[in-house]
């Protein structure tokens, strides 16, 4: 265990993901959505392949015993990526980020429904409170006065896409849990990137555009940064328990606020501040509860102390 290294890797991955999202926000509607997904996925494969080849794990990345499971997970992830990028193109950066943090709470509900995990009243309560936070965050985009205002359609669509993306991300987590029973991390990452790249490439006939130099640099950068962030995220869990470093996911919200203000002059509304705080507290409670239950299971497995 190396707690400091784990935290540094986790925070660095959160920063890279936030920068990647800022690049998607900057590209906006100038580049077709499918083209952005393609570049994000293809150039994410490069650092993944380099790292796994250096470790001698490249063969394991290609090998899979559950191609249909990989394809299903990839399909869910493709939907999530399209929805997330559509939201980022239409919403302030911190708004989209805050809504995305509903995904861990939705995962709790999905785990009970699809995996048969036992979820007690404490975590269900946290899920309910978290969704209250999501509603508060969404209020600035869904309140009647805003909906009737000119030019509000894009933001409303963006908020809807962000919420739908949170559901697909939770579904991807559930499918990943199923795959980890038999599949290596390297194969899951590789096939995720490959399937998303193919899905993005399939949109080519529907009108890709020739990007200028700045747009091309942004497209390549968001792919490489996404791949590096994924690697750092995976590495962070090698050095410390998930329950210890998971709370540092929420540093993404800080980076999103800083980048949104510095690059786009975006100032979150009071609803976003309040809603994001509620979501974060609910998520942190779930993490704390999971850690407490994990420690209890360890004590029960060890049995009562002997010799006294």
Explained architecture:
This protein has 14 helices and no strands. The model has no long low-confidence stretch (mean pLDDT 84). The protein is globular and about 45 Å long. The chain has one domain. By secondary structure, the chain is mainly alpha-helical. Helix 1 (3-27) runs parallel beside helix 13, helix 2 (33-55) runs antiparallel to helix 10 (185-201) and helix 6 crosses helix 9 (153-179).
Radius of gyration: 20 Å
Mean pLDDT: 84
Low-confidence stretches: none
What can be said about the biggest beta sheet?
none
- Number of domains in the coordinates? 1
Number of strands: 0
Q: Kindly, what is the distance between the CA atoms of the first and last residues, rounded to a whole number of angstroms?
A: 31 Å
| Class per helix and strand makeup | mainly alpha
Counting DSSP H or I runs of 4 or more residues, the number of helices is 14
Tell me, briefly, the overall form: globular
Give the % helix: over 70%
Following the backbone from N to C, one meets helices and strands in this order, namely: HHHHHHHHHHHHHH
The fraction of residues assigned to DSSP E strands is: under 5%
Fold blueprint:
Elements: H1 3-27, H2 33-55, H3 58-62, H4 67-88, H5 93-100, H6 103-114, H7 121-142, H8 144-147, H9 153-179, H10 185-201, H11 213-236, H12 242-245, H13 251-264, H14 270-302
Helix pairs in contact: 1-11, 1-13, 2-4, 2-10, 2-11, 4-9, 4-10, 5-9, 5-13, 5-14, 6-7, 6-9, 7-14
């Amino acid at each position: 265990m190396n707690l400091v290294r784990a935290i540094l890797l986790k925070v660095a991955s959160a920063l890279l993901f936030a920068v990647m999202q800022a690049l998607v926000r900057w590209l906006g509607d100038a580049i077709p959505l499918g083209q952005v997904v393609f570049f994000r996925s293809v150039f994410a494969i490069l650092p993944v392949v380099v790292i796994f080849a250096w470790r001698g794990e490249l063969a394991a990345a290609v090998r899979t015993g559950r191609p249909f499971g990989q394809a299903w997970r990839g399909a869910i992830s493709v939907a999530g990526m399209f929805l997330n990028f559509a939201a980022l193109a239409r919403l302030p950066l911190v708004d989209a980020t805050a809504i995305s943090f509903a995904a861990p709470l939705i995962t709790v509900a999905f785990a009970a429904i699809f995996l048969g995990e036992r979820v007690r009243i404490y975590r269900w309560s946290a899920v309910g409170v978290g969704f209250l936070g999501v509603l508060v965050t969404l209020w600035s985009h869904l309140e009647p006065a805003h909906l009737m205002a000119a030019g509000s359609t894009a933001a409303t669509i963006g908020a809807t896409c962000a919420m739908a993306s949170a559901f697909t991300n939770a579904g991807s987590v559930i499918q990943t849990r199923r795959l980890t029973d038999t599949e290596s991390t390297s194969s899951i990452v590789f096939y995720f990137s490959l399937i998303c790249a193919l899905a993005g490439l399939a949109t080519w006939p529907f009108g890709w555009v020739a990007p200028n130099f700045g747009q091309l640099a942004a497209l390549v950068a968001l792919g490489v940064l996404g791949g590096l962030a994924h690697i750092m995220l995976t590495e962070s869990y090698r050095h410390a328990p998930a329950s210890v470093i998971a709370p540092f996911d929420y540093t993404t919200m800080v980076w999103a606020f800083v980048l949104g203000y510095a690059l786009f002059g975006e100032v979150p509304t009071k609803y976003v501040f309040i809603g994001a705080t509620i979501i974060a507290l609910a998520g942190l409670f779930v993490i704390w509860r999971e850690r407490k239950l994990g420690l209890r299971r360890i004590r029960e497995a060890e049995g009562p102390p002997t010799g006294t």
